[in-house]
Amino acid sequence: MSIESNHTQTAQAAKATGPLVLEGRGLTMRFGGLTAVQGVDIHLATGEVLGIIGPNGAGKSTLLNLLTGIYVPTEGEVLLEGKSLKGVPAYEIAGAGIARTFQTSRLFGSLSVLDNVIIGMHSRTKCGVITALLRPGKSKAEMNRCAERACELLKSVSHDLFERRNVLASSLPQADRRRLEIARALATEPKIVLLDEPSSGMDDRDTDALIADIQRLREQNPKLGFIIIEHDMRLIATLPSRVMVLDYGRKIGDDTFEVVRQLPRVQEAYLGRKASSHHA
Ligand SMILES: Nc1ncnc2c1ncn2[C@@H]1O[C@H](COP(=O)(O)OP(=O)(O)OP(=O)(O)O)[C@@H](O)[C@H]1O
Ligand SMILES: [Mg+2]
C-alpha cells in the first residue's frame, strides 16, 4: 500500500474544523472533454455528517467515486486520516475505512439478506470470508463468527430486516434493499460511510424511517462519519450538520442547510417551482 504521510497540511486544516478523517483537495475529474468535477475541496471531521446536494449531473456521484478510489482524479488528491490515497486501489481504500452504497442497487439478489452482509465483510481480512467460503469445513467457526456479527449489524440497522435475514435479497421491497446496502457497508467496520441517494425509491414514510435508522446508528457509533448525497430535502434538513452544494462540477456552497438553502441555485433546483420535476 503506497500511503504517504502528509501530516503538516492536514494538521493545519484540522485546526479550523476539528480532527479530519477524510479530505479531498482540489479534486478534478475529466471524462474526455467533459469536466464532471472541478477543483473541489471536501473535508469530513470524525463523527460528522455532511450532505451533498446539486442538480442532476452536478458531479455528486463522481465525487464519491473519487473519494473511494473507483476513479483516479485527473487533478488533486484524497487523504484518509492525513495519509494520501494516491495509488491505493479501491478495495484497499474500503479496507482502510471508507465504505459506500451506490445510487443503483448492487445487492446479490440470489443470496439471502444475511449472506449479503457477510459478503460485505470480505475486505476485513481477519474475517476471512472468502477462505471460509472456499474451505467450509476448516473455517466453520469463523463463518459462525461472521454470521453472528452480520446479525448484530442487521439488528442495528433495522430489526425488521434482521427478522427477514433468511429471505432472498431480491424479494425485499426497495426501501429494505436500501437499508440492507447500508448494513453491508457497515460490515467493513468503516470510519466513514458514503451514501449515494439512500432514500431513492422510498415514500415519505420510508424516508422518515431511514432518517431515524441513521440517527440511531450515529448514536450507537458517535465516531462514524457520513457523507450523504440526497435529493430529499427533509433528510438534508435533518441529518447533516453541513451541506455542500455542487453545480456543473463546482462547489458553490458549503455551510449549514439554513445558509445554503438561500442560494438561488438551490431555491431553483429544490425549493422552487422546478423541485417536483427534478426529484430523481
Ligand atoms: N464514467 C463516465 N464517463 C463519462 N461521463 C461521465 C461518467 N460518469 C459521469 N459522467 C458525467 O459526469 C457528469 C456528472 O455525473 P454524476 O453522475 O457525477 O452526476 P450526479 O450529480 O451524481 O447526478 P444525479 O443527481 O443524476 O445522480 C454528468 O455529465 C455525467 O454524464
Ligand atoms: Mg448521482
What features would you describe in this structure?
This protein is of the alpha/beta class. It folds into 2 domains: 1-97 and 190-280, Rossmann fold, CATH 3.40.50; 107-189, no CATH class. Helix content is 41%, strand content 23%. The protein has helices spanning 7-17, 60-67, 90-96, 113-120, 129-134, 140-157, 159-163, 174-186, 204-220, 233-238, 257-260, 264-271, 275-278; strands spanning 4-5, 20-31, 34-45, 49-53, 75-80, 83-84, 98-100, 192-196, 225-229, 242-247, 250-255. Strands 7-8-9-4-10-11 form a 6-stranded mixed β-sheet, sandwiched between helices. Strands 1-6-5-2-3 form a 5-stranded antiparallel β-sheet, with helices on both faces. A hairpin with a 2-residue loop joins strand 5 (75-80) and strand 6. The relative contact order is 0.17.
Q: What is the residue-averaged pLDDT? A: 86
CATH homologous superfamily descriptor of the largest domain: P-loop containing nucleotide triphosphate hydrolases
Listed once per kind, the bound small molecules are: adenosine-5'-triphosphate, magnesium ion
Largest sheet: 6 strands, mixed
Please report the first level of CATH classification, the CATH class of the largest domain.
Answer: Alpha Beta
CATH architecture of the largest domain: 3-Layer(aba) Sandwich
Beta-strand segment tally: 11
Q: What features would you highlight for this structure?
A:
Rossmann fold, 2 domains, six-stranded mixed β-sheet, five-stranded antiparallel β-sheet, 11 strands, 23% strand, binds magnesium ion
